[in-house]
């Protein structure tokens, strides 16, 4: 170990609107002592995701809400540097809930969401992205909820985000013609030129319905929604019969005080469609398949991933703010230790 | 045949708001001649359903829109009185798309939605209700989309309507604690006193969310929605995790010029719930099971049905208006011939 202290980001305030640097504080604590059945993980990379803002507010319905002074929650990948657990020996690379800190103490009995990193061909950071929960989200949601058939049309919102940029490719590799929705022309160009989208929509300048009617005159069969709100409304207004909507994220709403008023909800019934919420940890039995299939696609050059890596744990609040500013291209990651 | 003429209701106008008698006109036409492969059905009972208003406007997405002068569409049950088809002999009782008329000419090659009535213990009219598409709708939607587990809580809107009054009982017989939503205290009393609901909500006088929080503090697991709009919004705001919502009908919306603005749509994602549109003819493979199981429940006295039967084909427009006025109790039927 190169340091005897453990840098940690703690909650300093509950955000009211947009995330601010002052919602967090950086502190140094002693590295905790390892007792029987415990092991210490040194963080190599930390994941950054939109849902983290809600960890500060209400726990997002999946975590206990954070109090002022609590270490910020989040997933990371790291290496076991000290262990008093036979199941988790020193040297093992793991991914799991490490928190925004350089070192985390884990207990073998309390680690249902800690996974060893098995693959060795791709960089370690992919365990936070394409070969981790981000990629598993895209794969499992498409496989289980959307279950696309060859030749169907899939729409993906937030298409250049962490999950979205994998979802567009997985949908294509599952046989779909894919339309991506993003917020800049640069992102739209990447979608059509590099990620195999048949068309891309800039939701800030294009009329969504107009583009959908042009590219999907019979309606969309699959909608992988990371955004919600107005984009969802347009998608609902242009559904094909028996469409499947994966409700994966609602980034358009996380900053809103009052929710978007959805008008085309009746189309779910009228089109005999299905809209279903998705939570990746419900799909653990599919993870091994997702890893195998996607690792193969990567090896064949069929599946590309992008990581947007900032350096240094000090960057964490800034990295989270970038997501809400739409600045990241691909999975937002912070490198903590090499 | 007792008459040489065929009374028919035709479309006279496209309704703008509520259905009016003047949207229809009654005419007498000669009974059509039966050619090879055809058969003539004498209507005994006609079904009345909210969706029929939309047949006049846009076909409801399932029929070609009616033109002025076309015979009004609708299902009925009757007897084959003349036949030049070996597959459909004289004397067979059938249910299917007879239209609002005393006699209908059917062709053996064009009758995928014509079914012989096989059961003989219950009255013929049940083929339009509990032992026909109305009952199959309740059974198939609950079985396939909701798939309730013992002890779960089910909410049914439009609970004293044709589909709803069967859905509350089928949900109970599948193991649910059932809460019904209706629009009068009289209907609410019937729900709790006769149909086995644990609670009933009068949506015109009760605060839905208040009642739901009291009777389903952990949220509702199944929502069988015949109404949409504000009731759907309350239900979405009170979902249990992994809730299933059957989007069966939207009677609150059929008269609205502009759709209800739904606020709690994000709960579908947040609660990992599923909302799915239902169309009964997609479930034909389940019809035989539905008929067998529900006939058995009726024989055991476990499943009750109510029919609201008006006499005479002249009553058809009035019968349809009654649905929108909430006056019917149970399946609305018109007896055309005894």
From TrEMBL, chains A, B:
Superkingdom of origin organism = Bacteria
> Could you tell me the keywords of this UniProt record?
Oxidoreductase
Q: Give every Enoyl reductase (ER) domain span.
A: 17-334
GO MF term (any one) = oxidoreductase activity, acting on the CH-CH group of donors, NAD or NADP as acceptor
User: Would you tell me the protein name for this molecule?
Assistant: NADP-dependent oxidoreductase
Query: Where does this protein come from, organism-wise?
Result: Temperatibacter marinus
């Amino acid at each position: 170990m190169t340091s005897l202290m453990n840098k940690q980001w703690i909650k300093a305030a509950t955000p009211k609107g947009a995330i601010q640097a002052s919602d967090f504080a950086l502190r140094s604590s002693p590295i905790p002592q390892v007792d029987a059945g415990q092991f210490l993980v040194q963080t190599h990379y930390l994941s950054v995701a939109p849902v983290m803002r809600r960890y500060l507010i209400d726990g997002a319905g999946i975590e206990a809400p954070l109090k002022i002074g609590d270490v910020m929650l989040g997933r990371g990948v790291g290496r076991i540097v000290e262990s008093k657990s036979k199941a988790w020996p020193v040297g093992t690379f793991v991914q799991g809930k490490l928190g925004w800190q350089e070192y985390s103490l884990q207990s073998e009995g309390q680690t249902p969401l800690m996974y060893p990193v098995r693959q060795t061909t791709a960089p370690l950071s992919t365990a936070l992205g394409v070969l981790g929960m981000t990629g598993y989200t895209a794969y499992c949601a498409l496989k289980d909820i959307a279950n696309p058939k060859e030749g169907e049309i899939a729409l993906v919102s937030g298409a250049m985000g962490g999950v979205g940029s994998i979802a567009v490719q997985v949908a294509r590799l599952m046989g779909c013609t894919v339309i991506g929705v993003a917020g800049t022309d640069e992102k739209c160009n990447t979608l059509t030129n590099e990620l195999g989208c048949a068309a891309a929509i800039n939701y800030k300048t294009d009329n969504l319905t107009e583009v959908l009617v042009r590219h999907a005159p019979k309606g969309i069969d699959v909608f992988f929604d990371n955004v919600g709100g107005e984009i969802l409304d347009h998608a609902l207004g242009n559904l094909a019969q028996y469409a499947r909507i994966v409700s994966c994220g609602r980034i358009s709403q996380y900053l809103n005080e009052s929710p978007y008023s959805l008008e085309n909800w009746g189309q779910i019934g009228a089109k005999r469609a299905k809209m279903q919420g998705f939570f990746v940890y419900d799909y653990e039995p599919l993870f091994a398949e997702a890893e195998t299939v996607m690792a193969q696609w990567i090896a064949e050059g069929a599946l590309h991933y992008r990581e947007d890596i900032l350096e240094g744990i000090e960057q964490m609040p800034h990295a989270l703010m970038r997501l809400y500013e739409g600045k990241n291209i691909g999975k937002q990651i912070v490198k903590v230790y090499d």
